[in-house]
Design brief:
Distance between the termini: 69 Å
GO molecular function, one term: carbohydrate binding
Radius of gyration: 29 Å
Largest sheet: 9 strands, parallel
Protein name: Glycoside hydrolase family 31 protein
InterPro entries: Gal_mutarotase_sf_dom (IPR011013), GH (IPR017853), Glyco_hydro_31_AS (IPR030458), Glyco_hydro_31_C (IPR048395), Glyco_hydro_31_CS (IPR030459), Glyco_hydro_31_TIM (IPR000322), Glyco_hydro_b (IPR013780)
Number of strands: 48
Organism: Suillus luteus UH-Slu-Lm8-n1
Family: Belongs to the glycosyl hydrolase 31 family.
Shape: globular
CATH superfamily of one domain: glycosyl hydrolase (family 31)
Strand order of the largest sheet: 28-27-26-23-19-18-17-30-29
CATH class of one domain: Mainly Beta
Helix content: 10-25%
CATH topology of one domain: Immunoglobulin-like
Length: 966
């Protein structure tokens, strides 16, 4: 299959290898353009552009671009007159925008994504990024002021590219490495490419479940490593294909093997157009490249200089917006499934969780809640409104919360006696997406025939807000909202209900089938149908390492381009949409919105616009409280409005591992509140897989167990070993809540990612660049989960090459780690390896409670892990955990050196809880301990772990505290 894939690409695409003229001839022969077609396929012969009329300013430059020769009309009509604007946005951010001078191409409106204001300070002379250009043919490249001899960070020149490994880069050694990539700017097709260092490290360009892992495959010697399509699609977590969200941003982590140093940079193409992005390496070349192919829009690039990975992510956040403030309760454990058939199921699960001593913060309901699968309703038999209200109020009385689902599709009334206010009100207010002829666009989803919200309609927000408010008033007193099916996803192509008899199609009825088949690797002979995988409390589960086959992208043919006009549903260039034509499982591309917008241009932003509207609606319904949202489809800036779950995954060990790369991806995308369906959604899970997954997810931001209708129940109380693993992991999570909360405050204020790949903190250690089976929570907590069945140990790298002391979270013992390689760690069932980095100081909750409220009401403890020099540092951010916008807060700083720990406190928020216990790791046994100059009698010392414990510190956190040990 792979060789066939490359063979097709060799002929049909303007790749970097092969005989250009021969390939172009073959392509034109295959095009089947038809008589009189204005389009050809010889993209490599497109003339490019010439730059002229340049005007410089204090903040950048503006110039015109004109077509440098006869139009090639490869997949559309060439636009002859373009404008380029270059803005030095800050010392670390450069904005390069190329658009049609007539402004006829779609550009993302400011009402959807607000961009930074024009700078009032000139950065042109001191920005770390420098814009360079050639006039004919026009090309540009971005270099670092701080590293002028290095290969450019982005380079669109089709010649003068280095043929040798990078670094070092010597411009005088440059020669032609590839051609065939002129700038193409057409009404239906845009193309631009940039050289990259051979085999460099690229991360991002999702949403994707990538077979190559978190690090994207860049190809080797003539190989296409990645074809990443951006077209939001509601399918169950396929591998190496387009998925729910679109995030055309990447980080490059560039390593200089000569100096042993690395630096990071980032590139955002802020476009909602459907697109293919290729990462590939020409044969016999020491240069790789990235190529963008878009089916509309403009070229709107932002470049970020880093130089650290976390700084790149933060700089991206400064452009599209920092993440929303999360309520403290959102960090609790959430429980859901499709298949809680009535309110009694909800009550039973809440009771069973408490009986098992497994903390439960939020109970969710899927579409079982609805009457006839209609949004904003409850089923009068299985979920009567009064009983739902009573249940939710019981949760609230116990400091727990409730979240229901909201699907994007709104049911169409079936006849004149059918009463459904959200639809009829929307018709009156003219807020539904239409067909080009002005009729309602009618799709088919769970309720039957449906319409979709037109988020550009001026009345949409009020209709959406009132629908949510009425739902809450009727008894569904939600604490947050779960947005699903918002790619948007449908079950038919085009406007399948237009002209139909609405009364003939009701809600779907075939959704209650039982998921058959044993869980992955299940041994029926050994365990029988009862599924008892333990004997006397000892797990007997084991099976061979999972070997699920990764799926490959199958190449779709490039469109013939025979249309005389613009066919919105079948653009001449066919992106690699996983399900074929653009309208499959989604809206047709010619569906129309207010303002004349069409789905072809705004499709990838549908979920974002729903998230923004829902966030604003919840703000008005729950004033002075932070909204909590989890959504499936996302786009740049979605993190301002929502969190994300990783979609409809599978109950397989492979997806346990893939969980990690998904969480790491969305830190780049500034949507840090993210997690997978714990124990898997599709299929049947088993005891060991659920045991390991409940542990893993406890150390990711969003923590929810959720599975599909008809599958085996997988609530953590179902198995004793899973219950035990859950209690242990959740206790650690809730103890770390002040640390998590501080990381997310830093994310909301400055865009710093809470979860980090290992190389973010250790950028000069190449052995970490492809590590995606471990991660860091902040800079100080290392997580190494078990990802294979039957394991009692796990291998993991403890970064720092021996310069860092890593201590076990549970025992506080220092690990004898292998420098630069894997260390084997004990990992019996129900145990996940968690390690604390030295030079850290972590504010913790001393006694985790059953709920987040109870946990926050208790005393604090402080864990200080000294490095070899005897120093440590940490911070904490504290507020009430619920106010919107964030109200008074307090910032704490912890600093240890030379036998002294200083705690500084600043802010208006009064912390009522005391600091009860202070633990310092890595100290020699002292003879005396004092707080605020007064001797402390009740301290202990553990020789084996060099651990000083002051268990009765009992100090406040609203002023300065000094602890001294001698």
């Amino acid at each position: 299959m792979f060789s066939l894939l490359l063979g097709v690409l060799y002929i049909l695409t303007p790749t970097v290898w092969g005989d250009i003229s021969q390939r172009a001839s073959l392509a034109n022969n295959l095009a089947s353009n038809g008589s009189g077609s204005p389009y050809s396929m010889n993209v490599t012969d497109c003339p490019g552009y010439t730059l002229g009329s340049l005007q410089e300013s204090d903040t950048g430059l503006t110039a015109h671009l004109t077509l440098a020769g006869p139009a090639c009309n490869a997949f559309g009509l060439d636009i002859s007159d373009l404008t380029i604007e270059v803005t030095y946005q800050s010392q670390s951010t450069l904005h390069v925008k190329v658009y049609d001078t007539a402004n006829q191409q779609f550009t993302i409106p400011e009402s959807v994504i607000e961009r930074p204001a024009a700078p009032t300070t000139s950065y042109a002379g001191n920005s770390d990024l420098i814009f360079n250009y050639d006039t004919t043919p026009f090309a540009f490249w971005i270099t670092r002021r701080s590293d002028p001899g290095a290969m450019p960070l982005f380079d669109t020149r089709t010649s003068s590219l280095p043929p040798t490994p990078i670094p070092p880069f010597n411009a005088s050694d440059a020669s032609t490495a590839f051609d065939g990539f002129p700038l193409v700017f057409e009404d239906q097709y845009l193309q631009v490419a940039s050289a990259l260092p051979y085999g460099t490290n690229i991360y991002g360009l999702g949403e994707v479940v990538a077979s190559s892992g978190f690090r994207r495959d860049i190809g080797t010697n003539g190989g296409v490593g990645t074809i990443q399509t951006h077209w939001s699609l509601g399918v169950s977590d396929p591998i190496d294909q387009n998925l729910y969200g679109s995030h055309p941003i990447y980080i490059e982590h560039r390593y200089n093997s000569t100096t042993g140093k690395a630096s990071a940079s980032g590139v955002l193409l802020l476009s909602s157009a459907g697109s293919d992005i290729f990462l590939q390496t020409p044969p016999n070349s020491k240069v790789s490249l990235i190529e963008y192919r878009m089916i509309g829009g403009i070229l709107d690039f932002y470049f970020f200089s880093g130089p650290s990975d976390a700084e790149v992510i933060a700089q991206y956040g400064s452009v599209i917006g920092y993440p929303m403030w999360q309520p403290a309760w959102g960090f609790g454990f959430h429980l859901c499934r499709w298949g809680y058939h009535n309110i009694s199921d909800d009550r039973e699960n809440v009771a069973q969780m408490r009986a098992a001593g497994i903390p439960l913060e939020v109970q969710w309901n899927d579409i079982d809640l609805y009457h006839a699968y209609r949004d904003f309703t409850t089923d009068p038999v299985s979920f009567p409104g009064d009983e739902v209200r009573e249940f939710i109020q019981e949760l609230a009385a116990n400091h727990q919360h409730y979240i229901p689902i909201v699907d994007a599709a709104i049911a169409v009334t079936r006849n004149s006696t059918d009463v459904y206010d959200p639809f009829t009100r929307g018709v009156e207010e003219d807020v539904w997406i239409k067909n080009p002829d002005g009729s309602l666009y009618i799709a088919e989803v769970w309720p039957g025939y449906t319409v979709f919200p037109d988020w550009f309609s001026e009345n949409m927000l009020s209709v959406w807000t009132d629908s949510l408010k009425n739902w809450s008033d009727m008894g569904v007193e939600f604490s947050g909202i779960w947005l699903d099916m918002n790619e948007p996803s449908t079950f038919c192509s085009y406007s399948c209900g237009t002209g139909a008899n609405f009364s003939s199609v009701g809600p779907l009825t075939d959704v209650s089938s039982v998921v058959i088949g044993y869980p992955e690797c299940y041994n029926e002979t050994l365990w029988g149908p009862s599924g008892n995988m333990t004997v006397n409390g000892t797990s007997t589960y084991s099976c061979a390492t999972n070997s699920t086959t990764m799926t490959m992208i199958e190449k779709r043919g490039v469109g013939a381009g025979s249309e005389e006009g613009v066919d919105l549903n079948n653009p001449p260039y066919a992106i690699h949409n996983a399900v074929g034509s653009l309208n499959q499982h989604s809206l047709a591309s010619n569906a129309t919105y207010s303002g004349g917008y069409v789905d072809l241009d705004v499709h990838n932003m549908f979920g974002l616009m729903e998230e923004k509207a829902t966030h604003l609606a919840i703000q008005s319904i729950l004033p002075e409280k932070r909204p909590f949202l989890i959504s499936r489809s996302t786009f740049p800036s979605a993190g301002k409005w929502t969190g994300h779950w990783l979609g409809d995954n599978f109950s397989k060990w492979q997806y346990l591992y893939l969980n990690i790369q998904g969480v790491l991806q969305f830190q780049i995308y500034q949507i840090p509140m993210v997690g997978a369906d714990t124990c898997g959604f599709n299929g049947n899970t088993d005891e060991e897989l659920c045991n390991r997954w409940m542990q893993l997810s406890a150390f990711t931001p969003f923590y929810r167990n959720h599975n599909t209708n008809g599958a085996l129940p997988q609530e953590p109380y179902r198995w004793d070993s899973v219950a035990n693993a859950s209690r242990i992991a959740i206790a650690a999570r809730y103890a770390m809540l002040p640390y998590w909360y501080t990381l997310f405050a830093n994310s909301s204020m400055a865009g710093i990612p809470p979860v980090r790949a290992l190389f973010y903190e250790f950028p000069d250690e190449p052995e970490l660049f492809n590590v995606d089976k471990q991660w860091l929570v902040g800079s100080d907590i290392l997580v190494t989960p078990v990802l294979t069945p039957g394991a009692s140990t796990v291998e993991g790298i403890l970064p720092g090459r021996g310069s860092v002391i890593w201590r076990d979270w549970y025992t506080h013992a220092a690990v004898n780690a292998t420098s630069g390689g894997n260390t084997i760690l004990d990992a019996p069932i129900s145990h996940i390896n968690v390690h604390i980095r030295d030079n850290s100081a972590l504010l913790l909750h001393q006694e985790p409670g059953y709920t987040i409220y109870e946990t926050r009401e208790g005393a604090y403890s402080l864990l200080v892990s000294l490095n070899a020099a005897g120093t440590a540092f940490g911070t904490a951010y504290v507020d009430d955990g619920i106010s919107f916008p964030p109200g008074p807060s307090r910032s704490l700083t912890f600093q240890a050196a030379e036998g002294t720990l200083k705690i500084d406190s600043n802010g208006e928020y009064e912390i009522v809880q005391i600091l009860e216990t202070i633990t310092v790791l890595g100290v020699q046994k002292p003879t005396q301990v004092a707080i605020q100059g007064s001797p402390v009698e009740g301290w202990t010392y553990k020789e084996a772990t060099e651990e000083l414990v002051v268990s009765n510190a009992s100090v406040g956190l609203n002023g300065q505290t000094i602890l001294v040990w001698r």
